[in-house]
């Protein structure tokens, strides 16, 4: 038992900081109020701990021994040094952090409960029935029914709430009225809502299988033929969410551009039927399809740029009034790759102010570097790159790749120092823990061809250009196959 407790002590602080790092500024502010409430927390140290972590640690520094000691001294009013910060003190701090993590988890549950109406009302109606609150139940039933009828979007939360309301209304009728006719009609409606919830959940699962997990839903546990047959039934076919899900499934199963065009056309015509978050998801599916096809050697960059223009125009790229730095990098990169430099600069200038302040300049310089690079202004690109501080994994690895490509373009003769830079980057990408196996393979393939092309360019390699071209063509995945092919074509002309 003691061993398990020690293990909890060793990991709780890491898990706690990781969780808090994932909170938005608004969520952290709410969490502070949550922890300050005596209803949720009676430990006086929890508020002190959270306030200090937000001010000094969260999304700012690694929680190493130095910062642990500073945290301990602050919340417990001590003056420990590295020599006096021993196991007993660590356990005390980590116990408090473990407790804070549980409070943060509880806060997330409370927040989710507010957002998830069907779960909220399921709990509420159950308790009101236990308290025999007939009039209050009737009031809620009428109010929610009126609210639901005003909704235009018929998505999964809509049908889950309809099911919840109908289920509890039937129980109400059974207890208080015993109206057989009303119950018979109600059961038919309940069955319909249950069917809609099932189909929306099932198609969501299949969509995730073929898109996120790259699985084939023809497995014995997933009857794709049955779900396709059900989706053709009138009561399901008219639901835009089910239809969109089925088009996504067909697109990623068949890799047929016909379904790409059908899905794009469908969501453009049915925009009013979808919430903005779901529109964002659907455009993400289309974008990811283009990216996957592009990584496999099928050029769909122009389709991707058109998608980004539509998303920007319709303000679909916003996330809670903000634009993520990942989205910003994506839309600017695609614009540059398709030579829409003015649009790239327009987007960067328009959304710069929405980037988090502490990384704003680095994000701005990274994207200026990208624009300059694609305009073939390589020295200018490097001048922006040196102003980029650490941002996140995605930005950092892409910044390295751009620097490598700039050196490739600028070097007029073979340079061992440049090759050492290439080898260092190759090792960095190979050992990057946050990259999955497929991503590592994509970058490993790129670096292998890239380094050999540099050698061939300066007549320092033993392999021939034809050998490298054949090796590249045989690769099923590569992080930037089109760029490598373009460099091969350039070398053929020398």
Outline of this structure?
With 494 residues, the chain is mostly helical. It has helices at residues 2-21, 25-36, 44-57, 65-76, 87-115, 117-130, 134-149, 156-176, 180-211, 224-231, 234-237, 240-254, 257-269, 276-295, 301-313, 325-337, 341-351, 360-374, 378-385, 393-410, 416-430, 437-457, 465-473, 481-492.
Overview of this structure, please?
This protein has 494 residues and is an all-alpha fold. Among the domains are: 2-115, no CATH class; 116-261, no CATH class; 411-494, no CATH class. It is built from 24 helices and no strands. It has helices at residues 2-21, 25-36, 44-57, 65-76, 87-115, 117-130, 134-149, 156-176, 180-211, 224-231, 234-237, 240-254, 257-269, 276-295, 301-313, 325-337, 341-351, 360-374, 378-385, 393-410, 416-430, 437-457, 465-473, 481-492. Helix 8 (156-176) runs antiparallel to helix 9, helix 17 (341-351) packs antiparallel against helix 18 (360-374) and helix 19 packs antiparallel against helix 20. The chain is globular, with a radius of gyration of 28 Å. The protein starts with a helix and ends with a helix. Residues 1-8 have low confidence and may be disordered.
